[in-house]
Specification:
By secondary structure, the protein is α+β, with helices and mostly antiparallel strands. Among the domains are: 209 residues, Bira Bifunctional Protein, Domain 2 (BirA Bifunctional Protein, domain 2, 2-Layer Sandwich); 79 residues, no CATH class; 97 residues, Rossmann fold, CATH 3.40.50. The chain has 19 helices and 28 strands. The strands form eight sheets. A nine-stranded mixed sheet has the order 3-10-11-21-16-15-14-12-13, with helices on both faces. Strand 8 and strand 9 form a beta hairpin. The longest helix has 20 residues. The protein binds adenosine-5'-triphosphate.
Length: 574
């Protein structure tokens, strides 16, 4: 129910997970600050991502600037097309995403892919209203709005720049250097975890849609003809899939299968995408996403970028809605080709043949003493045309004359004036534009999901209790240490234990305020897996022992202090 989200957002603020930022100045939509617990949880999730997608896969990590010059986004296409549909309320003046207004109030599920006139028609037909004030939106013009934040680099406005709307461009742009670090060998992967900025028209649902957020992206560069993923490593991974074919049915349903079977039966058609779905699923499970509320959804054909043959999103269920956590796409040579077109640098890799190949190469060496007088200022254009023909269509040189088109006029040039010849050449390889497979993760939405899926309410000793059943690997605080009462000896002993636990790298909170029950509740709400209490028994015994309380069961055990830090550290490691 929505109630969980409401309670979670309240808990998040009270306990230091996240809250709207700049509250002292009234707050501003779409910007959130992660508090002490949230920053730590987010950091743990990012570390877990780095371990799996960079370190364990042998990929390189980079850290590029968040502001990039405008030509980067001219090349990438973002300047022209990174738009959302906007509709403004004639009454209150608020702007809304037109596709969201349609999706929220009609049976249309993918309004983003509809052309603008059709969206306007749907708004009129359904008499849709402004979500803020209820005024009718029929007849309002729907406009496009570019989501990039613009800025100027240096004084004046001669060098426009933009805050990056995704971390990916920072990787693509540096490809000519990154390939050197990879010793010019495909395949190789480059990851980046960092901030991205989108001037969302209507930020909503707390940290699920914000204007500044964190992405963790992997760009995996492959030779489309030579490289294959290690599908065996993931073939047994069980997944819930929601293929496009099912979404198109009235009563479409999800499919329980394995990665291996899904590839075999062509449900997932791109093997590289299948591989990354296969490593993503157990990773999501390990950081605490509830696998009963998790699926991979295939993009419908209208949603897909034209270059991507098969795209899947990881989705989690929040209050009955599915939200996108990550996108997985084979982007082919789209991004690198665009940068190659716009930049002088080389966005290719040399593919060495197993053995050198002998190839025929057609060349021309036109007779300028003939072309000059014949064509005057157009002579160079004729040369260019002949060169292109030699490369693309050798049969053009089969007759006595060669026909070329120049400004819609056909000219015949005697064959002997073209200097056409075919020579044999031995080549060791060729330059190819690598293809790229992109798993693109949103970190904030994942943090929200992890908290939401961990949210529990139960009753302990007749009292209602709220706790977060966070995985020990990501829990921001691992152990709380309490002296039972304010007593110098108990406090001193508790401080010693805090030092021991911190020395083995555990994140520890010391708390001596309020009664012990209150302190347990506080840690339960933060999701701290263990609490250690120092009491009078601790001091009396021969062997020093403490009470260790487990969060989920609230079971308490007496354990010796000796070896406690090591035992807990082992649990933390899993
Ligand atoms: P949406 O359709 O929800 O706007 P998108 O398809 O445009 O998202 P991508 O460009 O694929 O998103 O970005 C990759 C990931 O980045 C998303 O899966 C999501 O987790 C995250 N993300 C994108 N936009 C936002 C945002 N405004 N706030 C928080 N996370 C976001």
């Amino acid at each position: 129910t929505d109630a969980t989200s409401e309670k979670l957002v309240e808990l998040a603020k009270r306990r230091g997970y996240f809250f709207q930022s700049s509250g002292a100045y009234g707050g501003v939509g779409g910007f959130y600050t992660f508090g002490p617990q949230g920053a730590s949880l987010k950091g743990n999730v990012e570390d877990a991502w780095r371990d799996r997608f960079a370190v364990a896969e042998g990929n390189m990590e980079i850290d590029a600037p968040t502001i990039m010059p405008e030509p980067v986004f001219e090349a990438s296409g973002h300047l022209d097309t990174f738009d959302d549909m906007l509709v403004e309320c004639p009454e209150c003046g608020e702007s809304h995403r037109a596709d969201h207004v349609v999706e929220d109030n009609t049976e249309y599920e993918d309004a983003e892919s509809l052309p603008i006139p059709e969206v306007e028609e749907v708004i009129a037909e359904y008499e849709l209203v402004c979500p803020s004030c209820g005024a009718g939106l029929a007849g309002q013009a729907v406009d496009t709005f570019n989501l990039m934040f613009a800025t100027n680099i240096g004084p004046g406005d001669s060098d426009p720049g933009h805050l990056r709307p995704e971390t990916a461009q920072g990787i693509f742009v540096e490809f000519p250097r990154l390939k050197e670090y990879a010793r010019n060998q495909l395949p190789f992967g480059v990851t980046q975890i960092g901030r991205a900025y989108r001037n969302e028209i209507s930020p909503r649902r707390s940290i699920i849609r914000t204007r500044e957020f964190t992405q963790a992206e992997l760009e995996y560069f492959v030779d489309p003809e030579e490289d294959e993923p290690d599908l065996e490593a993931v073939e047994d991974v069980e997944v819930t899939l929601y293929p496009a074919s099912e979404q198109n049915k009235e009563d479409g349903s999800e499919l329980e299968t394995t990665i291996g079977e899904a590839v075999e039966e062509d449900v997932i058609t791109d093997e590289w995408v299948a591989y990354f779905l296969g490593i993503a699923k157990p990773w999501y499970e390990a950081v605490g996403v509830d696998m009963d509320r998790f699926r991979f959804r295939q993009h419908l054909s209208g949603e897909r970028a034209h270059y991507a043959a098969d795209c899947w999103d990881a989705e989690s269920e929040i209050d009955g809605n599915w939200i996108e956590l990550a996108g997985f796409a084979n982007r082919s040579d789209y991004d690198l080709s665009k940068h190659a077109d716009h930049s002088e640098d080389r966005f290719t890799i040399f593919r060495q043949y197993d053995e050198p190949k002998t190839v025929e190469r057609a060349t021309v060496d036109p007779d300028m003493s003939y072309l000059g007088p014949e064509f005057g200022g157009d002579a160079q254009a004729v040369v260019d045309e002949l060169e292109t023909l030699a490369e693309r269509d050798r049969s053009a040189f089969d007759g006595e004359t060669v026909e070329i088109e120049l400004e819609d006029e056909t000219h015949e040039i005697p064959l002997e004036k073209t200097g056409f010849s075919v020579d044999e050449e031995t080549i060791a390889g060729e330059h190819i534009v690598p293809h790229v497979i992109e798993p693109s993760f949103g970190v904030d939405r994942l943090v929200y999901t992890v908290l939401h899926h961990a949210y529990r309410e139960d009753e302990v000793d007749g009292e209602e209790r709220t706790y977060l059943e966070l995985e020990p690997e990501v829990a921001p605080t691992f152990v709380g240490v309490f002296p039972l009462q304010n007593d110098d000896e108990l406090e001193e002993q508790a401080h010693e234990i805090v030092d021991d636990l911190r020395a083995v790298g555990l994140s520890v909170t010391y708390d001596d305020s309020g009664n012990i029950g209150r302190r347990y509740r506080r840690q339960d709400e933060v999701g701290t897996p263990f609490c250690v209490t120092v009491d009078y028994e601790t001091l009396e015994e021969e062997e020093t022992t403490v009470t260790v309380r487990e969060r989920d069961t609230t079971d308490q055990k007496r354990l010796p202090v000796d070896g406690l830090a090591e035992t807990l550290a082992e649990i933390r490691e899993g």
